[in-house]
Amino acid sequence: MTQKYVYFFGEGDTSDKKLLGGKGANLGSMTKIGLPVPPGFTITAKVCIEVNRTKKWPDGLLKQIEENVKRLEKKMNKHFGDNENPLLVSVRSGAAVSMPGMMDTVLNLGLNDEAVEGLAKQSGDDRFAWDSYRRFIQMFGDVVMGIEHARFEHELERVKNGRQDTDLDVSDLRKVVDAYKVLVRKEAGKLFPQDPMEQLKMSVDAVFNSWDNKRAITYRRLNGIPDDLGTAVNVQAMVFGNLGWDSGTGVGFTRNPATGENVLYGEYLMNAQGEDVVAGIRTPKHFEDMKKEMPESYKQLQKIRETLERNYKDMQDFEFTIENGKLYMLQTRDGKRTAAAAVKIAVDMVKEKLLTEDEAIMKMKPEQLDQLLHKQIDPESKKGTPIAKGLPASPGAAVGKAVFTAEEAAAIKEKNPKEKLVLVRTETSPEDIEGMNAAEGILTARGGMTSHAAVVARGMGKCCVAGCDGINVDEKAGRFRAGDTVIKAGDVISLDGSTGEVYKGALNLVEPGIGGDFAVLMKWVDKRKRLSVKTNADTPHDAQVAKDFGAEGIGLCRTEHMFFKPERIMAVREMILSETLDERKKALDKIRPMQKEDFKGLFKVMDGMPIIIRLLDPPLHEFLPHEEKETKEVADEMGISPQKIKNTIKALHEFNPMLGFRGCRLGVKYPEINEMQARAIFEAALESKKDGHKPIPYIEVPLVGNVKEFLLIRDIIEKVADELGVKGRIKYKIGTMIEVPRAAMTADEIAKEADFMSFGTNDLTQMGCGFSRDDAGKFLNIYVDKGIYERDPFQSIDQSGVGRLMEYCIEHARKVKPDIEIGICGEHGGEAESVKFCHRIGLNDVSCSPYRVPIARLAAAQAAIEEKR
Amino acid sequence: MTQKYVYFFGEGDTSDKKLLGGKGANLGSMTKIGLPVPPGFTITAKVCIEVNRTKKWPDGLLKQIEENVKRLEKKMNKHFGDNENPLLVSVRSGAAVSMPGMMDTVLNLGLNDEAVEGLAKQSGDDRFAWDSYRRFIQMFGDVVMGIEHARFEHELERVKNGRQDTDLDVSDLRKVVDAYKVLVRKEAGKLFPQDPMEQLKMSVDAVFNSWDNKRAITYRRLNGIPDDLGTAVNVQAMVFGNLGWDSGTGVGFTRNPATGENVLYGEYLMNAQGEDVVAGIRTPKHFEDMKKEMPESYKQLQKIRETLERNYKDMQDFEFTIENGKLYMLQTRDGKRTAAAAVKIAVDMVKEKLLTEDEAIMKMKPEQLDQLLHKQIDPESKKGTPIAKGLPASPGAAVGKAVFTAEEAAAIKEKNPKEKLVLVRTETSPEDIEGMNAAEGILTARGGMTSHAAVVARGMGKCCVAGCDGINVDEKAGRFRAGDTVIKAGDVISLDGSTGEVYKGALNLVEPGIGGDFAVLMKWVDKRKRLSVKTNADTPHDAQVAKDFGAEGIGLCRTEHMFFKPERIMAVREMILSETLDERKKALDKIRPMQKEDFKGLFKVMDGMPIIIRLLDPPLHEFLPHEEKETKEVADEMGISPQKIKNTIKALHEFNPMLGFRGCRLGVKYPEINEMQARAIFEAALESKKDGHKPIPYIEVPLVGNVKEFLLIRDIIEKVADELGVKGRIKYKIGTMIEVPRAAMTADEIAKEADFMSFGTNDLTQMGCGFSRDDAGKFLNIYVDKGIYERDPFQSIDQSGVGRLMEYCIEHARKVKPDIEIGICGEHGGEAESVKFCHRIGLNDVSCSPYRVPIARLAAAQAAIEEKR
Q1: H-helix or E-strand containing B394?
Q2: Is B742 in contact with A660 (Cβ distance < 8 A)?
Q3: Disulfide engineering: A599 pairs with which of A365, A684, B765, B805, CB 3.0-4.6 Å?
Q4: What is the pTM of this model?
């Protein structure tokens, strides 16, 4: 039996998104649950992959398509190419994972010189028929035949001759169609296809091809979507929102995607096709207006909203068209939402008994919380008036230099990753993805809350002000005008994504507060998670921020950050430039009281919580001046010759500093450094205790590769502890980083001696994979492009490689010390997939930067729920 | 019950060298088998470790020593400090492993103001007694009390006042004794101890301390002896070789240690103590003379020789003393020997049925074979006459710049490791160890075949000419005179260690031939070994040398070495500087025919044996010029601007090149490079086959960390193979290096796809331990000193760390492909301990440089025998 390549809507397992794609599955399931969906069929995603690989259609595919077309003709009682009652269809892509605006779509397929007459008869509207025909040729020519959109616009402008679209009559539109046909023959070297089946075959191929276009690949890479999913193709009977003023089209959400409020939310345009809404070319009306304009349709939408949420158990993003007063559902999918909305919706749905707490937690995207935790514009700094105001399309705030093309934004960011940019466009399109990614925020002159810019920005967690009518953007000249104000490329502006305000200059940003629904959700989260979530912090301020975000201790306090403070860097340099042990000790004695105060500050904030303090780690040359001028200044201040500093730098030079003289190797050679640090920690702890706090220092030895290194350093620390009489008074532990592969491989030996272990997965990845993070840029992109690594292993733990080292380490450490605490403190500790992996392999805790603590908590809870299932 | 700390000779298990030390065990066992050994007792090595740790004597030790002294007094019928019949003893160190000249010794202990009178009566020789007393004070003052040797010499010279030692009469010697006592009080701040028990206690402590002196530590480090063995102390009744002309002392070998000839071999001095022979101060007579001078003793020695070899089943190095015609054995141990002697002795002893073949193989020290494989002086180049001739003390040859102090030799070598040096000394002493290690060869003016220089040089496998009377060395001025010739520091000389000849200037060196006994031994070896031993070779010449040494294929052919040849480096540079694929391909097309010829050459030599050819590995910048002048030349020749070359170098610059853009990463980015190499290999193989050879190329992908990298490169190679129709005609394999920890950890995935694997343990050590080989010098010495690593992990595989990665890899690779061939091709492949480890973990083959092939074969056989036991 031939394989089943094509499914009529409602056929088969309509939950199989991998096969039918998200859109196809939903059209099928909407059909099943009785929603008014125009009939159609889905060609599976499996076919896409096969065709893209073999470059030909599998046997039987064409036949199955033809059969389904027949079924569709029968159901609609319309026929392809018929000059009385023609069947018109849309052809849309639909992958398993939503990729908004990424894939190409063809509408009105089936129109030809005959069918246009049929459509005219059918609709009783010649002008509509010929306008549809010219739109179809334009879209088909662009998307399927690859002729530049602008070429068609040019022909259209010629006929319009300065008039509006709506001023064109039927004879004008016939002229446009003729001109388009000539254009197609000239540009594509062949005639515009008149056979609807031929049109369909070509369109299906175009959708298949679009899976591998650059935009789609970029989107997949940015969103971690695998390349081998493929896209399904949905062929659906057309319904028309542009049949007159009792027709229209709209896009809605079952709840407010910006705030999460439980109300029907959306926009529509009368007498328009769907693309007009999404593309943001005309600014649509809000549903509020529909209540008055089309009360029946509005009531119907309210009912559909409930049906959808009951069925899909999530907030839905849907498209609909009203054809001569009759409403059709064209699409539904889980709606993108701001983090704030996601939180509110999750909590509300539990209250509404639509979801269990577990389900609500699982609906959350951990990475998205980042938005909630991002800075907002300080209300105090809003003294002037905004230069413009648009729609509050994606919350948060952005301050940056205006930039007017996506390419430029991407280029500037690549050159200087620290540059803050705001992308300003009349409207955005899928080609702009990389530029949007490079910007802090996006400002558009046209388009609504569901325009491309708004949807994508929300997905990215970036601030966006859309549909800002008051501005006039000249991309070519690189400037925009807002009233009397002109902002040129490079001028700094500020956006408030929550109010839609645009300001000239840089406003202050403030920390976000978290509470309300978020607090409720996080309470559920904390009930479920097993991992303890700590933070990486070196200052009382950061520690406090993290604690407010729910951190349960400090997982990594980097002592060297304290070394860089201006008032102590001199003493550090003296230490490095010392030629004798005595000189070195004298310099260290200057540093110790300062370090002690640092630790006291941390003990105070983290009262009763463990603080993992890592001993000095970086190579010493990092503390020395490297510029000629600075070298001279330092030499003068220290009363030595600049040559001496240069000599020391030369002596410290290494070919591969990553694998060089750093970490515990410093302490093995210069035990007095670690001795000073141990003394500062213990003295701080004793004094803190006297002040009524409960300090819990965990002293961590970095870059251990061999248990004997650890023993040497532990001895130094224990000797200080004995000397200061710490035992019995302070609860301390001495443990080690696991960042050298050899340490992971000899974890049994190390675990015998160490009280705790903490993975430094940055270095473990560097050494485990043999990549230098500073250099890997030269080839790592190619590696991700070619699929050698699915994701950048420095962003998300390489679970199948570095992860194995971790598993080996844990297994062997626990064999000799079953209750040894093992954590992770690299940057991976705040990345959701990595956190889940850490849960699965049985770590005790993860540590991450303060702002990522809630993300880690949520991911930890999701991992625990996944495990339970 | 108190522990037993002291064993009278013959008591206990006399094979327990760990407890009794080598010397103590042998004195005990010699006593047991009835050889004439002066009685005595041994304080165990365990005590040494305990005392050095606790800094005090354990309870009961003193009592046991006192009891054994009593027993000794009874046995000898002599008494400590007796003025009639005093007991005198020697106190000597003796560790489990022989450390010649490393440890301090005290002779004539027991002499004091009373006992000297007793000794005079006993020996009937006042002069002898007082000379012994003054020698004892001198030795005790130096070794036990730490007073400089030269201070005593100075006092002696004062009394001698220009006369010879032998001119001193009793009253002179009494004056010397008095002067010595004054010196001791002044220098040590206390009186010279008169109580023999006090003398003994102090001497025992001195021996214990000597375990941790710098010389001993250095020797242990150089010889890989663990620090926690400790040394036993042997206290033995003195016998005197300096009692007159019917007394004497000597050192012998049961066979010739230089050639292995089965004859009694040794030297002696009449009327002398043992130290006079070993120190090389007087040039001793050969045993041949003893036949005439003391025929009885000679006969006795012949018998002892047989007894010793029958008992110890090895060639022995023994010391003896003749006291008034009666012969005493003072020591025996396995004798150091040249590699040639070792081979002959092993083979002979099998013939003599003293050893089995297995035992003979186990007696060999693999590293020592290096000597046999070293170059010799080309007889053709010996046209002039030698400037001097000494004893052929250690075979081989050396050409290098004369250097006159050990410190200087070590310093020069450290600055420039490639510098070749010959150390020239009047005589050497244990302090010179590091300098001897730094030199290619050693030339001494004094001392015999058993002098310090000779013994140590043989142990090190270095060429040595000793006792070269014809030269006059002035270390201070840095020159020596040989007849009319003056050689100054820095002048080049050549030594022939097999003839004892010294030449001015540099003679040519030739490759050694191997055959005879060596061939017999290696036949036994090959019957036993399981590992296949291959070689690292890039040229037909090296391949031929290795094949002659028994290589069974090439385990690593580095293609990049071929890239550096002058006639092709230009094309390589063109390739690197290419901006387009076409340019790059054009440059590669120039390289391909040259590479093909290289491979054809190798296929011819290695007819029918596998050749593992590694694809391009190093970072590209290595091929570009780095000096200003060279850059300009290259730019001119290529017709481009020097700036372009500089820009490319800048673009290729990396912070950690070790972890950078190299290995298969080059091929992932530039597939055309590997495509060219595959083509060159297959074309060469096809042409070789046409020429009647049997080429077996194994193509190896370097620096794989992820199976997907391997798949990409394998596809490139397979495509070329298909294109050239290689399949079915050439037996080829495609495999991978395992040098990235991630590759070891994902060996199951890689083994599914790869035909073979080869460990690159250099890089695996770098990444596994997190050491950059170029930089580790900054701390690795300290690491070895502190015992963090017992040996430099770049010299001998870090079995407990990197070794675990290897074991994990093998286990997981074999799980999915049980018969996958796995080898090693790093420099460890020729180091005996590493080879044995490779055997134990189940590798199929090892590969090493041509000259180390026999070492690897021997080590492989020993590993197989050890496994069988």
Answers
A1: strand B391-394
A2: no
A3: A684
A4: 0.78
